[in-house]
Design a protein that fits this description.
Blueprint lengths: L2 H10 L22 E4 L5 E4 L6 H5 L17 H10 L3 E2 L2 H8 L44 E4 L6 E4 L11 E4 L8 E2 L2 E4 H15 L1 H13 L3 H11 L7 H4 L7
Parallel strand pairs: 4-7
Antiparallel strand pairs: 1-2, 2-8, 3-8, 4-5, 5-6
């Protein structure tokens, strides 16, 4: 079966993607399935493994059969506002290229839902293992463009889409523009997310936060987890009981 035929068959399987990977929130997981990565600047970053889905962005207004598809059509400002409301933000241009490991101008390195595939539409998030990074981030090539905070005055998106060729890496638009093949993923520095969300929640419900942290540890590499824990231990405002949540022995 060709790659295109296989991708088409996925959309025809009843209930195959009734719940998108990015929509999972087991037992009130405060970290919402976020992945943990490490920046060269020496900071841990929580990041959505998938492009934000329609069910996440539009909530109950999204038909079940479309909920697993990436949300699109929002402006850069709207995407940033959505992320901010959840205690996060959009990736910067520099962070995206570092985390996805695409040196600027090098072009895509992995197969994905680009114009070469010929689908002409977005696919469910997380379909292509070939575009998965070692940190567990999916759809790093194609599917839909992703808004990022650029260094210029123009609005910038990265990664390509089903309507662009794999060699396309960046795309600039005028302020306030949007497109049906542009979505986004969101992130949050671990240190600030702990201060603003996890620590206050831990003071009210230690068990709930412990479950969330345990789930994050299970989907993180040991090396990155150790670096992240050491970063948090630098904050003298955290009591030892809170920092103990991040010990590997928990």
């Amino acid at each position: 079966m060709s790659l295109r035929a296989w991708a088409s068959a996925l959309l025809l399987l009843p209930g195959c993607f009734a719940s998108a990977p990015g929509d999972q929130d087991p037992q009130g997981d405060l970290l919402h399935g976020l992945a943990l990565t490490w920046k060269s600047s020496g900071n841990a970053l929580l990041i959505s493994p998938y492009e934000v889905t329609r069910s996440e962005y539009y909530s109950a207004d999204t038909p079940l059969e479309q909920g697993h598809l990436p949300a699109t059509g929002m402006t850069l400002a709207a995407a940033a506002q959505w992320a901010d409301a959840r205690g996060g933000r959009l990736l910067t241009e520099e962070e995206w290229f570092e985390i996805i490991w695409w040196p600027a101008g090098s072009g895509a390195r992995a197969a994905g839902n680009t114009m070469e595939l010929g689908m002409g539409r977005p696919l469910p998030v997380g379909v292509f293992e070939s575009s998965r990074t070692t940190d567990g981030l999916y759809d790093t090539t194609g599917n839909v463009w992703e808004w990022v905070q650029g260094s210029s005055q123009e609005d910038l998106c990265v990664g390509g889409s089903y309507a662009s060729y794999a060699v396309s890496v960046t795309r600039t638009l005028s302020s306030g523009d949007s497109s049906e093949d542009i979505g986004f993923r969101w992130c949050a520095p671990l240190a600030s997310f702990c201060t603003e969300a996890l620590f206050p929640a831990w003071q009210e419900s230690p068990q709930r936060v412990q479950q969330s942290v345990n789930a994050l540890r299970q989907r993180s590499s040991g090396a990155i987890w150790s670096l992240a824990r050491k970063e948090l231990e630098k904050n003298s405002a955290y009591p030892k009981a809170f920092l103990a949540l991040f010990h590997e022995t928990q």
